[in-house]
């Protein structure tokens, strides 16, 4: 008699001895085991395992497979039949036993039979249809298993068998490691049993996992529960916690909004520890996608590497603690009281030539430094340049990339990113992935042009139209708009705006130098 186990992996034994059929034969056995007495139509097996083949080829492949299966494992599959069925007198399966338990309400039996997810770790290459089917079955079976555990846990709880209840709730939390409800139930049961350390550990483990796997997702219920437990505990132990162990006051008190993008909001906040005003950029958990969260983390790690008088500095970063008014991942930087270059342009239209050259020179210095650290900003535009005491500060490294050939740790693959169309270099507009510092030089050229002319070099009705103009139009003559502009400065601007990167300044440091000469 053969025994096929599918819950928690795939093993086939005959009289206690292991047999290992090749993957595709195993897949057929799994399909037939799942179909039970009803059996599976041959066409369905073919569609699942050989979705690409023409019908005849698929049939032929199945025939061959069944032939070799029967040679090694006689009497498992009735020959010639359609639908195909496993012979129940020759083979038994844990799947059939599990289903029988579920059907008869034997929840303890079902829980005992479930040794892990359906076909855990089994993989069949080149059969996406089969993979989809496995996912579907896996979900259904784990749902049955979790229902059984929940019922058992309820019974244990009702009759005061707490050790058993906790054990079952632990299994539930393990069955779906990302389910907040299961984690919350376990934490609550542990706390109720007086196991504080265990409850905190379980909560911390879940939150770490959720932050890792579901970045940006809020874990409100659990955080609230942990906070309440902490309060209770503090009350019980009769003392307040120290400030730094997470039980103290929340360090940053958010006051008002300063600006927002799609995934993040920047606030003015009060830093209680140092009693100072700071800016706090918070990823909005309710809208942030996994990519946003990854980028945000990368933005923080990039900022953490940079230290330059014209780059907005990173003070701190973290995740808002439970109980804070706002939740989510954040980082903290100096609060810049001045305006952004965008606000200044909106107010003044265009800038005095000397101011424009000085600002561009400061930004070029910041870029030269960032590039030397292997970081390309990729989003240089007036919104991301701020003024503190009249000096420029570059911020928002939100879509910054790390140079391919830069040494040291790679932060992540660059991928294609688009900045605002008006400041997008031709290579960025053309979808190139590995942008280098010269792309930032071009964007800064657009910003400098706008500071001098009152509008960026290329405008248009749609973003696509503007991008097309970056790729093909020549730069509208600057001195027509600003006749008093020195020829040499116009040449500098034109050189930053060359379509081909190799015709621009080789480095931002060279550009800064040219602008410095201009100002002398
Ligand atoms: N440190 C700061 N001090 C003052 N205002 C800031 C600061 N950082 C950002 N801002 C304001 O918030 C806006 C959005 O910030 P930014 O980092 O560019 O976020 P996003 O990635 O959403 O564009 C900026 O354009 C600016 O107006
Ligand atoms: Mg921005």
Describe what this molecule looks like in 3D.
This protein starts with a strand and ends with a helix. β11 (385-388) and β12 (391-394) form a beta hairpin. It is elongated. Helices cover 48% and strands 12% of the residues. α18 packs antiparallel against α19 (508-519). With 520 residues, it is of the alpha+beta class. The structure holds adenosine-5'-diphosphate (ADP) and magnesium ion.
Keywords:
13 strands, 520 residues, Phosphorylase Kinase, domain 1, alpha+beta, 19 helices, binds adenosine-5'-diphosphate, elongated, four-stranded mixed beta sheet, binds magnesium ion
> How many individual β-strands?
13
Number of helices: 19
Number of separate structural domains: 4
Strand order of the largest sheet: 5-6-7-9-8
What's the CATH architecture name of the largest domain? Orthogonal Bundle
Q: Which superfamily, in CATH terms, is the homologous superfamily of the largest domain?
A: Transferase(Phosphotransferase) domain 1
Poorly predicted runs: 235-247, 406-413
Structural class: alpha+beta
CATH-defined fold name of the largest domain: Transferase(Phosphotransferase), domain 1
Q: Tell me, what's the shape?
A: elongated
Distance between the termini: 94 Å
Provide the CATH top-level class of the largest domain.
Answer: Mainly Alpha
């Amino acid at each position: 008699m053969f025994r096929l186990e599918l819950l928690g992996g795939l093993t086939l034994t005959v009289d206690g001895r292991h047999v290992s059929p090749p993957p595709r034969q195993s897949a057929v056995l799994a399909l037939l085991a799942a179909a039970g007495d009803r059996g599976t139509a041959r066409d369905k097996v073919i569609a699942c395992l050989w979705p690409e083949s023409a019908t005849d080829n698929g049939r032929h492949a199945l025939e061959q497979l069944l032939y070799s299966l029967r040679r090694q494992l006689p009497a498992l599959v009735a020959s010639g039949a359609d639908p195909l069925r496993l012979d129940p007198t020759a083979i038994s399966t844990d799947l059939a036993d599990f289903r029988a338990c579920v059907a008869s309400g034997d929840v303890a039996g079902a829980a005992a039979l479930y040794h892990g997810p359906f076909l855990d770790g089994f993989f069949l290459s080149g059969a996406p249809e089969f993979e989809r089917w496995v996912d579907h079955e896996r979900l259904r079976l784990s749902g049955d298993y979790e229902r059984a555990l929940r019922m058992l846990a309820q019974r244990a709880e009702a009759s005061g068998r707490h050790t058993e209840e906790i054990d079952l709730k632990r299994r539930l939390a393990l069955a779906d490691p990302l389910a907040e409800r299961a984690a919350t139930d376990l934490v609550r049961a542990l706390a109720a049993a007086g196991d504080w350390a265990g409850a905190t550990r379980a909560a911390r483990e879940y939150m770490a996992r959720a932050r890792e796997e579901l970045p940006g997702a809020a874990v409100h219920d659990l955080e609230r529960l942990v906070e309440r437990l902490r309060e209770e505990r503090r009350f019980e132990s009769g003392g307040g916690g120290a400030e730094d162990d997470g039980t103290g006051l929340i360090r940053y008190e958010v006051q008002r909004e300063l600006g927002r993008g799609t995934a993040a909001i920047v606030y003015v906040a009060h830093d209680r520890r140092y009693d100072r005003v700071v800016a706090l950029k918070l990823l909005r958990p309710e809208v942030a996608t996994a990519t946003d969260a990854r980028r945000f983390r990368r933005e923080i790690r990039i900022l953490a590497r940079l230290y330059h008088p014209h780059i907005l500095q990173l003070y701190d970063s973290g995740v808002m603690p439970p109980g804070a008014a706002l939740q989510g991942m954040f980082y903290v930087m100096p609060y810049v009281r001045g305006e952004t270059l965008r606000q200044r342009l909106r107010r003044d239209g265009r800038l005095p030539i000397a101011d424009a050259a000085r600002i561009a020179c400061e930004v070029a210095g910041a870029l030269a430094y960032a590039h030397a650290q292997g970081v390309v900003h990729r989003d240089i535009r007036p919104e991301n340049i701020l003024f503190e005491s009249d000096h420029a500060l570059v911020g928002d490294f939100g879509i910054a990339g790390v140079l391919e050939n830069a040494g040291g740790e790679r932060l992540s693959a660059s991928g294609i990113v688009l900045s605002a169309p008006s400041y997008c270099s031709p290579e960025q507009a053309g979808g190139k992935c590995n942008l280098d510092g010269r792309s930032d030089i071009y964007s800064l050229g657009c910003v400098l042009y706008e500071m001098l002319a009152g509008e960026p070099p290329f405008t248009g009705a749609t973003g696509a139209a503007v991008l097309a103009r970056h790729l093909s139009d020549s730069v509208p003559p600057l001195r027509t708009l600003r006749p008093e502009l020195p020829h040499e400065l116009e040449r500098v601007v034109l050189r930053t705006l060359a379509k081909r990167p190799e015709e621009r300044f080789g480095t931002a440091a060279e550009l800064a130098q040219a602008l410095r000469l201009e100002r002398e």
